[in-house]
Amino acid sequence: xxxxxxxxxxxxxREKDGAALASILGQPSYGPLSTAVACFCASDDLLGQxxxxxxxxxxxxxxxxxxxxxxxxxxxxxxxxxxxRYSLETAMETADRHGKEIADAWKAAxxxxxxxxxxxxFRGGEILESDVESLARQLxxxxxxxxxxLMSAAFHKDPHFTDEREWRLVTRLASPISKKDDGGGARSRxxxxxxxxxxxxxxxxxxxxxxxxxxxxxxxxxxxxRALEWTLSAFGYNGVDVLESAVPxxxx
Length: 252
What we know:
InterPro entries: DUF2971. This is DUF2971 domain-containing protein. This protein is an alpha+beta fold. The protein has one domain (2-244). Helix content is 42%, strand content 19%. It has 8 helices and 10 strands. It has helices at residues 2-11, 15-25, 47-52, 65-75, 88-109, 113-121, 129-150, 221-234; strands at residues 35-41, 59-63, 79-83, 122-123, 126-127, 166-172, 185-189, 192-196, 210-215, 241-244. The chain has a 3-stranded antiparallel sheet, with helices on both faces. A 3-stranded mixed sheet has the order 2-9-10. A hairpin with a 2-residue loop joins β4 (122-123) and β5 (126-127). The longest helix is centred in the middle third of the chain and has 22 residues, at 88-109. The model has no long low-confidence stretch (mean pLDDT 83).
């Protein structure tokens, strides 16, 4: 699927620009091992999800998806936040669209194309430091966009998983804004270690995107609902609804 994205980007660029972009996208820094995914569900009360996670004895946090998109896409340029598609046809369409978005970002960063950059940057065989700094600034926004869009396959799953109604944030393991340590690390899981990077979804509870929390069907709602309300209030999450699950949880 990544190759489909690259081909789409090349089709929307001049030949030399397309070749230069394809060379950049072929580097390991844009490969799957440099990409991270956070998964969400469009429903907060699905039997399949409660069975799969926490045996029903957990909590489903309900976010405002528009607020998350505004923060991650517009403000912090974390990457791509979008719904998963459950057919090959729509996956191909998504890959083509992502390729065009990469091409458009390339054109915005380099209005004159790669040849204009070369003409401006090379003076008698000498590359000036100011030229390098200028080009780096131009490509900063492009770099933060390329990696997640290239991982278009992350937004495609087999149709048998349709009832999951999944959304995903696809981002980089290294922060697109800063190279400093921002809370990343590794945790143990079945089969080894998982590398992660902490991604902020708010500056404070006052402007946060959390709208409701649903108590899992495997927990006593009266007790856990009151405990949850107290906890939310203690951490400054006022106005967040606490709801009971309507799922009749069974494992057999």
